[in-house]
Write a structure and sequence with these properties.
The protein is mostly helical. It has 2 domains: about 110 residues, no CATH class; about 260 residues, no CATH class. It is built from 16 helices and 3 strands. α7 runs antiparallel to α11 and α7 runs parallel beside α16. The longest helix is centred in the middle third of the chain and has 58 residues.
Length: about 375
């Protein structure tokens, strides 16, 4: 999608047509952004994706152009066509005017706005600095978007390979195996084990496919039900018991936690307030309980670094850096160092996963293909020898 951007240059308002990515790097002060829709866009109505990050980016650009918050909301609302985005903007504006609880007001839109975005809006409402709050939202949401994109790129190719393999299986069972089955039956008990397994699988899949489908659905629903009931156990397993993947998830959550802490501390809040608010940005219940225990220890007089160390969850380098921050009273720079350390750890581990998972999946597929070739062709070769 392209946008018409109104901006200020040499004390004059000018316009330019830009793509979405170009707006983020635009150097001049943006006054207003209007989407340019082609004829097909009118058919999409409200089925368009609700992009709240882009909404906050536009709002951030307007605030940096020295518009006040109410003016920025009004301009953004006038150019927005997505009804959900308009409702979110109106809710934020009305909550600010009435001085209501922003968390309660935005609760109906929790599927569109991340918890940490609501957290920073709340802090902005409390300290009257909405400009920094919106900038913080854009920063943390952009970083999370980059991380999700890295996950997607790492897993998309292996998932595509596995999906292709399953489709190939069904084609082979439906069209290929039946054409060779009379040859297999001629050999009787002399069939190789690979072919016997192939025929058993073919009978199971073709004759009981509906039972397999029902079993798969039951498995999914049962897993989801157990996850909701025992979320803390599943979250603990995700963080501690899955080789490599647990390290990646832990690095991601550590980066997210310390990024939030850094931004809040950088906004002149005390560390205790920062960690109490940052807890709400973490979705993992097991880690959230650990942070809650740290908060209680700090309230009971334990030093910050000691409270983190007593949890037994954080690595030694993080603990040492927190002791340094405590002794120098320089939490802002140290939290930035910890954030960058965990970001580097995440990038290294996701790259390691990428290097490991693709060859592993390809090797498994190669073995399955070899088994299929042997299962189908060995009986044919045996028949040729008999003739």
């Amino acid at each position: 999608m392209r946008f018409k951007v109104y901006y200020q240059k040499n004390n004059k308002q000018q316009t330019i047509i830009l793509d979405k990515d170009q707006i983020d790097n635009f150097q001049f002060d943006i006054i207003k952004v209007e989407p340019i829709r082609d004829k097909l866009d009118i058919l999409k109505l409200d089925y368009r994706k609700v992009d709240t990050l882009f909404m906050f980016k536009q709002l951030n650009s307007m605030l940096k152009a020295n518009l006040n918050f109410n003016e920025a909301i009004k301009l953004l609302n006038s150019s927005e066509e997505n009804r959900t985005i308009k409702k979110i903007l109106n809710t934020i504006d009305n909550t600010l005017k009435s001085n209501d609880n922003i968390e309660k007001s935005l609760k109906p839109y929790k599927n569109y706005i991340a918890n940490n975005s609501i957290l920073f809006l709340k802090l902005g409402f409390e300290n009257g600095n909405l400009k920094d709050a919106i900038d913080s939202i854009v920063t943390i949401q952009t970083q999370e978007q980059i991380i999700r994109e890295k996950f997607r790129k790492t897993l998309s190719y292996p998932i595509l390979l596995i999906a292709t393999l399953f489709i190939s299986f069904f084609i082979i069972f439906i069209y290929v195996v039946p054409n060779f089955e009379h040859i297999f039956l001629t050999l009787g008990e002399n069939l190789p084990y690979s072919t016997k397994i192939l025929l058993i699988l073919k009978d199971i899949i073709l004759n009981y496919y509906y039972l397999l489908f029902i079993f798969l659905l039951l498995l999914i629903f049962t897993t989801l039900a157990l996850y909701k009931k025992h979320k803390i156990i599943f979250d603990k397993i995700l963080l501690q018991n899955i080789p490599l993947l647990s390290y990646i998830i832990k690095s991601y959550l550590m980066f997210k936690l310390f990024l939030s802490l850094y931004i809040i501390v950088n906004s002149k809040y005390q560390f205790q307030i920062a960690i109490e608010n940052s807890k709400n940005s973490i979705d993992n219940l097991y880690l959230k309980n650990i942070i809650q225990k740290i908060i209680l220890d700090i309230k009971n007089g334990t030093s910050i670094a000691k409270a983190f160390s007593n949890s037994g969850f954080f690595d030694q380098l993080t603990i040492k850096l927190l002791y340094t921050a405590q002794n120098t009273n320089n939490y802002r720079d140290i939290l930035n160092d910890i954030k960058e350390y965990h970001n580097t750890e995440f990038n290294e581990k996701i790259e390691k996963l990428s290097k490991l998972i693709e060859p592993l999946v390809i090797s498994i597929i190669a073995l399955i293909v070899l088994w299929l070739i042997l299962a189908i062709m060995v009986p044919v070769w045996q028949m040729g020898s008999m003739i």
